[in-house]
């Protein structure tokens, strides 16, 4: 059998990384074991629960269903890449303030799925939020607070943009 | 995780030609893997019977949606998010766009491909009823060349299809001639998201003065593989949509479907619901006629 390892190169949270891994090793395991990025969780291991959601080349994927070789050359973002310079992402802040996280196992996947939604749809409706998070299961059944957190984060991002726009106007007026 | 990554070889030749050469060199030895939403589940569970895998992911020649005057050509490597984003599909072939939105979650739709859905050939495949109702064609490719077959003849048995060992699915061609057809698609599952169909029915019908001229019915989870319901169609073609026709069509359907009892549903439930779905569509046709 081919126990061969391949050199696999990709970018994770903006950093270029290389690992030696069997090509069929799951991206989930490469992230957790080889790169020690343990924010990404394993729930079901079969694409049903969304706990292992990461973004690969701008798409939301279940990292338990991605063989490492298919991540060659990819841009990957994990939950560790959401906060910028120690400042929480608006979604993380909202989950924190609104009780959107309980046991925490589904939370990284929820955050990644919600981030993917807000990047494509800054003002999602509740049905749109429910659809975007339909593949992410919370067994603490905290869905309502999770949905509320996403709504709050969208509003916060709006405020951020609004205040940036005001600052820019002020700057231009000088 | 029960599967062992060391037990499987995986190569990514990167181009369609290189994949086809590999399949021709050792026919039947290589298992193509695209988005992995089926095979990686089997792998994790330790039941992936595929020692040698060849990756189709990221091969541009397989990931496209192209529109011509007659048809929409969907590359086998197009993902269901690609299908959902296509404006021609949304406008003219809405059943396929809707079926695409049923495939698992966003994280599954970003990886699952139409080719994978069809080659995997689950009796419950979400894209099948729509493709049967639209009379789609499958284009296969190998180093020997290309050929097309009607999708209704693609599945030949449970998890079996008409592909030769060295062939790969290249594209699905969906004709653009259903704008005047009445269209129907409904899936019955345990919950709205992330559910495998207990029963699904897709249909296109062309009526002239209240008489059925064309009828195509595509069924999932009612037979060992996705299939047209030819006898039920025959009970409807050239008939006005009357109560008697509806009754005859229900009878034909119940005589034709062969559902099974499994973890998701029962024979009896599937038979009844399938007949009810058909009736729902036929009653829609009647109502429209009454209104027009």
SSE inventory with pairings:
The complex is a heterodimer of chains A (174) and B (292).
Chain A: E1 6-12, E2 15-21, H1 27-34, E3 53-56, E4 59-62, E5 75-77, H2 90-98, H3 107-120, H4 126-132, H5 143-173
Parallel strand pairs in A: 1-5
Antiparallel strand pairs in A: 1-2, 3-4, 3-5
Chain B: E1 9-11, H1 16-25, E2 31-33, H2 39-44, E3 52-55, E4 65-67, E5 71-75, H3 80-85, H4 87-92, H5 94-102, H6 106-109, H7 114-120, H8 128-133, E6 137-142, E7 145-150, E8 155-157, E9 160-161, E10 168-175, E11 182-188, E12 199-208, E13 211-220, E14 227-228, H9 230-234, H10 243-256, H11 267-291
Parallel strand pairs in B: 1-3, 2-3
Antiparallel strand pairs in B: 4-5, 5-10, 6-7, 6-10, 8-9, 11-12, 12-13, 13-14
Category from helices, strands and their pairing of chain A: alpha+beta
- Name of the CATH first level of the largest domain in chain A: Mainly Alpha
- Strand order across the largest sheet of chain A: 2-1-5-3-4
**Count the helices of chain B. How many?**
11
H/E series of chain B: EHEHEEEHHHHHHEEEEEEEEEHHH
- If you average the pLDDT of chain B, what whole number results? 94
Q: What is the subunit organization of this protein?
A: heterodimer
Domain module count of chain B: 3
- The gross shape of chain B turns out to be globular
Q: What does the radius of gyration of chain A come to?
A: 18 Å
Major sheet characteristics of chain A = 5 strands, mixed
Classify the helix fraction of chain A into a percent range.
25-40%
The CATH homology group name of the largest domain in chain A: [2Fe-2S]-binding domain
The chain pair with the largest interface is: A-B, 36 and 35 residues
Summing up helix and strand content along with how strands pair, one would put the structural category of chain B as alpha+beta
């Amino acid at each position: 059998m081919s126990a061969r390892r391949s050199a696999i190169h990709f970018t994770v949270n903006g950093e270029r990384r290389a690992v030696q891994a069997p090509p069929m090793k799951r991206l989930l395991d490469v992230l957790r074991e080889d790169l020690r990025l343990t924010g990404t969780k394993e729930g079901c291991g079969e694409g049903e629960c969304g706990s292992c959601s990461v973004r690969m080349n701008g798409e939301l994927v279940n990292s338990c269903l991605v063989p490492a070789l298919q991540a060659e050359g990819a841009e990957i973002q994990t939950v560790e890449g959401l906060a910028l310079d120690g400042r929480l992402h608006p979604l993380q802040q909202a989950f924190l303030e609104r009780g959107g996280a309980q046991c925490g196992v589904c939370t990284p996947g929820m955050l990644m799925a919600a981030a993917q939604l807000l990047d494509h749809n800054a003002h999602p409706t509740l049905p749109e939020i429910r659809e975007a998070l339909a593949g992410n299961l919370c067994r603490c059944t905290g869905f309502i607070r999770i949905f509320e957190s996403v709504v709050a984060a969208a509003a916060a991002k709006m405020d951020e943009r609004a205040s940036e726009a005001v600052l820019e106007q002020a700057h231009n007026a000088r | 995780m029960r599967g062992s990554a060391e037990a499987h070889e995986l190569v990514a030749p990167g181009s369609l030609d290189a994949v086809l050469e590999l399949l021709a060199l050792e026919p039947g030895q290589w298992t193509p893997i695209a988005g992995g939403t089926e095979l990686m589940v089997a792998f994790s569970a330790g039941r992936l019977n595929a020692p040698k895998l060849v990756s189709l992911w990221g091969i541009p020649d397989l990931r496209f949606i192209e529109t011509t005057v007659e048809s929409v050509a969907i590359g086998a490597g197009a993902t269901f998010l690609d299908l959902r984003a296509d404006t021609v599909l949304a406008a003219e072939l809405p059943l396929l766009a809707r079926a695409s939105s049923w495939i698992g979650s966003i994280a599954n739709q970003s990886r699952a491909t139409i080719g994978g859905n069809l080659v995997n050939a689950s009796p419950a495949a979400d894209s099948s009823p729509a493709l049967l109702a639209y009379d789609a064609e499958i284009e296969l490719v190998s180093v020997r060349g290309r050929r097309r077959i009607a999708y209704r003849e693609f599945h030949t048995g449970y998890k079996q299809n008409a592909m030769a060992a060295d062939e790969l699915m290249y594209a699905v061609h969906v004709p653009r001639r259903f704008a005047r057809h009445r269209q129907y698609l409904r899936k019955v599952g345990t919950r709205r998201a992330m559910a495998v169909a207990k029963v699904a029915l897709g249909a296109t019908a062309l009526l002239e003065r209240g008489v059925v001229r064309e009828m195509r019915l595509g069924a999932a989870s009612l037979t060992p593989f996705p299939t047209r319901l030819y006898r039920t169609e025959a009970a409807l073609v050239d008939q006005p949509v009357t109560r008697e026709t509806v009754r005859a069509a229900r009878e034909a359907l119940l005589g034709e479907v062969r559902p099974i009892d499994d973890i998701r549903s029962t024979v009896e439930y599937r038979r009844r619901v399938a007949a009810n779905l058909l009736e729902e569509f036929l009653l829609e046709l009647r109502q429209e006629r009454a209104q027009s």
